[in-house]
Protein 1
Amino acid sequence: MDKDALTVHEMVETYGVRIATIVDRDGWVKTKAREIDLDEELHLAKDLDRIMRHMKELYKFVGVSSNNIYWSLTQVPIRQILIPTTERKYISVINPEILKLEGQENNYVEACGSVPNKVYIVRRKPYVLISGYTIEKERIELEYGSKDFYAGEDPIYSSYSNPEWVIQHEMDHLDGITIQDKGAALI
């Protein structure tokens, strides 16, 4: 069967794709993702983009990293995230890196598909600038939040309304870090 012709369902069946959690596949979740060679491995990023979009919809994720999805084909997570854009659309970023994190840290309430049935308070910066590559191999920079944002004495924000949190959360995943490692459990 032509690999490019596989549907997401067929990829899930063929490659054993499933959600990776600290309960099932802890080693995958906590593995540092590897960069991919855009010339030799772009097909992996394209397939993973389709899988991540499917899982995002299926599980109502706000963002997705390759560490959230166990995929036997790649043997270890690859450095790729699916994140919201400022227009509330989603983009896959390949080999992303944080260029800047700025501002006073604030508390965010976070949940994670890889840490089931738990909610944590995690401190995050209000501004992030990242770079990486699109599925079309174009270099991009994405900017989120405000450098000057300060919310008050000890606020707690919902992560769902703050894409700068989502980016930091997914970037942590690529380094094998979960909210369990960074935050204080609420439940």
Protein 2
Amino acid sequence: MSSRLDLLNARVPRYTSYPSAPHFNASVDGPVLRRWLEALPRREAVSLYLHVPFCSSLCWFCGCHTRVVNSYSPIAGYVDSLLRELALMDRALGAQRQLTHLHFGGGSPTLLSPDDIARLIDQIRDGFIINADTEFAIEIDPRGLTRETLEALAKAGVTRASLGVQDVNPAVQRAVNRWQPETVTRKAVEQLRETGITKLNIDLMYGLPKQTAADVERTVESIAALTPQRVAVFGYAHVPEMKGHQRLINDADLPGAEERMRHYETAHAALVARGYRAIGLDHFALPDDPLAVALAAGKLARNFQGYTTDVASALIGVGASAISSLPQGYAQNAAAGPEYGAKISADEFATVRGRALTADDRLRRAVIERLMCDLTVDLDAVASNHGASARAFATDIEALAPLQRDGLVHVDGHRVTVPEAKRAAVRLVCAVFDAYLSSGNTRHSVAV
């Protein structure tokens, strides 16, 4: 790849894990996960992710494992499975563990009834210790959010809420089947703060159909007025071969690579101008937010939820499609609800795929994480920490040459740096260190 357009069109992983999920395989199953959990040191703190794969309507841009439901019955049955899986986790872990982070994702976790939120929290507290130091975050669809749900979340101990907005232009919203007036988002923010949930994230998206750079600017202006502590600006991943419902989006309405880049640059400039600190590839935080503090201290981390302050060595995933990241490797549950539920009902872990990590995987994962977080990495330091030599990256450094010629990366000996003005290219640089990435892999999203 030599031209800028070629680089913008390249398809590479998002690097929320390494190896990335397409390289998981069936060698990791339920018994393997159980052994990995049993091997965790009993005094070591862990994180917990709980997946709720249901929505009240289908957003055509969605890349998540979720489905639309018209009644509460499927959700009620799924909650029963979650409770059983949590009990399985408790038995495998053998002792209560301190939770550093607890995250409810989806889908739309706010579809859970207040009673089921309470049941889940009670079960989690049976196996884990939640205290004042635990961050409890939940993803929220502002549409249809009720006062009863908000009160249940506050009672459960939620400390941070992440609200999906994407774009405030009605024409863009119609093009992706997500009607969400600005008044709806503003009301949700006000109600969250009234109930004591004051740490707020807002998720935006660029590269959407019918979206322009002016729309991105207007959206940033609208949400910045709400003063969330964090903002995420994700690039829309158009992968209809993987997500069939994305075929409902008219390809002709999608912006080209250069226009997508303008969207990204517009969002970045607009948020920085309003006092937000750029975090890695696509997150922004106010200077006093823990995410910005972690970045300044060189302690920023990255996991399946994006950028995080969480440094726990084990992230345990619960629910259909959920992924656990453990010292030994990754383990993913069955994505299909019936298969997940059947395995849990049989008192088995629902793990169907994953990846055991090799020494080289751990070494390259560390390099990729530092690049994704800090935009720079000292290969000598990382190699030393893993009992290796930076000479192991000789071929990778040579492969960076085309990116260097385009000004997307700077190499000084064994120090690799993505220039601040080129941070959008960081995934391309990471891909050079990816030993599993095959050329022409269309299962990934475009780099920018």
Protein 3
Amino acid sequence: MKKVNYLFILFAVISASIVLFISLQSANKEEVSREIGMKAGKFYVAKEILPDHSLYPLLMVVDRIRLELSDSERRTYLMVAYNNRRLFYSKRLLEKGNLGLAFITLSKANKYINQALEESIVLLEKSSINKKQDYQVLGFFVLENLDKHLSFMAEHKNQFVNADQAVLDNLSVESLSLADKLRRLMSQSN
């Protein structure tokens, strides 16, 4: 397992170096392209890397690798964390006026919370007696974060066009259905 971790770290460092080099090159090209009126990708220095940043794809690759290398319980916690991060990104993108990317990011957040709900359901359905309590704690954690997610959606959904609102509503209905199923399983486990 340690060998896999070292390989992962080496891969991440090499990938980050390549992406940073390419980003710096594209930042230089952006300055030149502004002078001739062409639009280029965005490279900026900030505490967080938003989806409109040129390094964001690297962050997504790292997220995907972390998910793939995790067991089901850890993966569920990661999906909740990714949901929360994307809610934050959506808010920042809305503040910047980038509604299209904010919608995509918010819908991806919803897909992550739905996956976390599904994973919690599967874990509870297949759990042994000694793991049931751990998975119930995980279920409560996911449901608590779902409540935050749905509050965020309700607060910000009116900023999107009707078609996007309909998509967000459908994702929310799916979330509520999964949450009901998870709550039923949790109550049966008591």
